[in-house]
């Protein structure tokens, strides 16, 4: 598991964790690796992504996934205060981190150099009310030659949420993906006091209180994402997306979740072909 | 020669450019009873019997599609779609797609390793790209695992109501079930002579069962390299930057 960025308050308590990949994960990966030279792959790449990945010197190695089912409890926020709910922030972060770590374990078991098209899903199952499943799923790929050059500075396989098309374009523009980075923040937005409500009712004014809260929470999530990227030795992050969700908590509790792919310059990148004019007849 | 198909105009054009012609719309279906008893189950485990039923139902629908394809003297089917329509404890599984035939009459080389016509869930566009990229589809492949999540362990669990912790048995169970479905799909792909699978999707479904029973379905198209030396490929693919804004 990656080290936790600073700014995540408190120490995580020791928790019972699944020790290893489940039996059928190991079995499937062994079968995918197959005998020498007899690789078999599964992938959730579309046909176009599959061809582009091959064109740029990689082969798909296998579909990889990781999951963690978390009991996400409740943390009470003070009614009239803007504050981060640190216990929830940590739970949501750790659950995703676990799913990602297991997926990366599958990547290493496959002997792949990296994984692309990673999607992080949050599933809610009807069988448990506060039970949330975090699922990471993507396609591991292996370079036909010199795979080492594409690994992370610490020698681990790279990870990214780029599609096959984006991966192709990124390499052509002289960069390579390093790691999929994320940051989150669960925030409690203060309820307005009655006096405050009277002051602003019927007026068009900025709700400074709310602005500040949401601004702050978003910045915290971004800062943590940035720190992860720096820890991985990257020089930048592409395709960052910030999403917000209440995950079924009360409406004043919001999670901001930032995710993106950190990148490093690539030596000897293939040049982008000259743009050509093509008129499409598709509507 | 006249044909029926659910392909768009672009798709017809591309299928023809790839050396095929559409023949007719083919389909298969099966009707199954999905009821079962889980009362008193205290274990998280696969319900193997139900996995077999759910897989068998889709296989039977696929068999109908294969029969119609052979009857139409087509070499394969593109754009196969799988649908499940449920009514109470009964469900109808339908597969539907457009049968295509090679124009040069050498369709036999496109059969899968079992001697069946090829099937795939690719659109006409994807089919063209795949073929021009040097690969052929062998078979639409799937794997199923129906999993039961224990009730009792949940009760014990609720005592920790406010804790934020991972639930190890559930994690292990559902993770394993998903892997099992994918592994079965992979096995089917190897049986069909494929060297890989593209476009894998792992679906979850309940089909009206109790909420503790979940079906995982892994589905994708198995592919194999085209070995025919005379086959025309576009390698490397040509890159086009779209100037259209979206």
Summarize the structure.
The complex is a heterodimer of chains A (283) and B (246). Chain A is an alpha+beta fold.
What keywords describe this structure?
heterodimer, A: 283 residues, alpha+beta, four-stranded mixed β-sheet, four-stranded antiparallel β-sheet, 6 helices, 9 strands, 30% helix, globular, B: 246 residues, 5 helices, 33% strand
Structure report:
The complex is a heterodimer of chains A (283) and B (246). Chain A is α+β, with helices and mostly antiparallel strands. Chain A is 30% helix and 29% strand. Chain A contains six helices and nine strands. In chain A, α2 runs parallel beside α4. Chain B has 246 residues and is α+β, with helices and mostly antiparallel strands. In chain B, 30% of the residues lie in helices and 33% in strands. Chain B contains five helices and nine strands; from the N terminus they run αββαβββαβαβαββ. In chain B, strands 1-4-3-5 form a four-stranded mixed sheet. In chain B, strands 2-6-9-8 form a four-stranded antiparallel sheet. β2 of chain A pairs antiparallel with β7 of chain B.
Q: What is the averaged pLDDT score of chain A? A: 85
Largest sheet of chain A: 4 strands, mixed
Mean pLDDT of chain B: 87
How many helices of chain A?
6
SSE string of chain A: HEHEEHEEEHEHHEE
Beta-strand percentage range of chain A: 25-35%
Biggest interface, and residues per chain? A-B, 65 and 59 residues
SSE run of chain B: HEEHEEEHEHEHEE
- Spatial shape of chain A: globular
How do the helices and strands line up, and which of them pair or pack?
The complex is a heterodimer of chains A (283) and B (246).
Chain A: H1 23-33, E1 41-42, H2 47-55, E2 58-71, E3 83-84, H3 86-110, E4 114-124, E5 131-143, E6 158-159, H4 164-172, E7 175-188, H5 194-200, H6 208-231, E8 236-245, E9 253-265
Chain B: H1 9-17, E1 20-33, E2 45-46, H2 48-71, E3 76-87, E4 90-102, E5 118-119, H3 124-132, E6 135-148, H4 152-158, E7 165-166, H5 168-191, E8 196-205, E9 213-225
Helix pairs in contact in B: 1-3
